[in-house]
Amino acid sequence: MTNQPHHQRIDPALVVREGLIRAGTGHSVQLGRDATYTGEEVVTVVDITNAAPIGGQPGQRWAFRVEVSLVTTGPDYDAAAEGAWAVADAMLSLSVVDGVRVSSVICDSEPVRLSPHTPTGAEALVSRYSAIMRREGIA
Questions:
Q1: Which domain of life is it from (predicted)?
Q2: What is the extent of the structural domain holding 89?
Q3: At what angle do helices 77-93 and 12-23 cross, to 10 degrees?
């Protein structure tokens, strides 16, 4: 019997949020599950749309393929676009966040404009990414 390292779940949304905050995007980055905004400030919301273990075998939960959606809102298009491109650059640069290795980051969709947020009228852009996340030190 081999000794397996103690398994600790990865919270992909938290990893992305912390990585983007540390990258210094210049605006607020929040988790989708607790985001608040008024439409008067630039805010990026992090949502994980899929997190699947790599390998396909039961119990293989050491590495995950993660799909990330980043929605950036702002009071006008220019402010929202500037924020969206800042987080796009930061997302593509993520490597290690709190002992979690983020690798193979791929931009699945560059920031694109969404319908203005109701009722605030804030402009919004969304971008999508896929990445692999695993704890450091686990092969």
A1: Bacteria
A2: 12-51+75-135
A3: 110
What is the Cα Rg of the chain in Å? 16
Tell me the two tokens of residue 44: 């990026």
Number of structural domains (the chain) is 1
In a domain, 61, yes or no: no
* Contacts with 64 (C-beta within 8 Å, 6 or more apart), sequence order: 10, 12, 51, 52, 53, 54, 132, 133, 134
Alpha helix positions (H), 11-99: 12-23, 77-93
pLDDT tens digit string along 89-122?
A: 999 999 999 999 999 999 999 999 998 767 777 8
Q: Count Cβ atoms within 10 A of the Cβ of residue 114 and give its class: 0-12 exposed, 13-18 middle, 19 or more buried.
A: middle
**Which H or E element spans position 133?**
strand 123-135
Instruction: Assess if residue 89 is contained within a domain.
Output: yes
Would you say residue 83 lies in a domain? yes
